[in-house]
Amino acid sequence: MSILINAIILCIAALHLYFLYFEMFAWETKGPKIFKQFPKDLFTPTKALAANQGLYNGFLSAGLIWSVCITNTEWHFNVALFFLSCVAIAGIYGALTAAKKIFFVQALPALIAILLLVVTNCF
Fold first, then answer.
1. Mean pLDDT value across residues 13-23
2. 10 Å Cβ neighbour count for 103?
3. Number of structural domains in the chain
4. For residues 88 and 52, what is the distance between their CA atoms, to the nearest angstrom?
5. pLDDT per residue as tens digits for the range 56-68
6. What is the pTM of this model?
7. Residues with Cβ < 8 Å from 109, sequence gap 6 or more?
8. DSSP secondary-structure letter at 44?
9. Measuring CA to CA, which residue among 56, 70, 71 is closest to residue 17?
10. What's the pLDDT at 1?
11. Domain region containing 106
12. Which of 99, 123, 103 is nearest to 37 (CA)?
């Protein structure tokens, strides 16, 4: 089960690395195609804000990757739980404030990983 959990954690980390790329380097080019409901003239003035979000996503990804590298079971659990919780909270907040699909793309995978992590840690 730990291989499955680590694989899910790494998939979530990869997703957040993509968010880092998108928000830091492709905001003005890909942003208008993804966020069609926003006016196109909004992307240039918000480039720095998006890059800041991308940087935070990079930190989340780094923490998730770090958690998979930890060999101590207790520390692996604690670090993975912390970073997955951060991802889930960010996804829930994003779903409430920006777009509902953020819940399914960001929060739901993290919540599934948390559930698997907790269930396997209890047995």
1. 97
2. 17
3. 1
4. 19
5. 999 999 999 999 9
6. 0.92
7. 8, 11, 12, 15
8. T
9. 56
10. 65
11. 2-122
12. 99
Are the C-beta atoms of residues 116 and 8 closer than 8 Å to each other?
yes
Q: Which residues fall within 8 angstroms of residue 57, CB to CB, at 6 or more apart?
A: 16, 17, 19, 20, 23
User: Would you say the C-alpha torsion 29, 35, 39, 45 has a positive or negative sign?
Assistant: negative
C-beta of residue 60 within 8 angstroms of C-beta of residue 8: no
Report DSSP state, residue 39. Answer: -
Write out pLDDT tens, residues 75-101: 999 999 999 999 999 999 999 998 899
Q: How far is Cα 81 from Cα 99, in angstroms, rounded to an integer?
A: 25
Here the tokens at position 122 are 């209890």
- Residue-level pLDDT at 95: 96
Distances (CA, A) of 4 to 23, 30, 62, 112, 118: 29, 32, 19, 11, 13
Q: Chain centroid to CA 96: how far?
A: 16
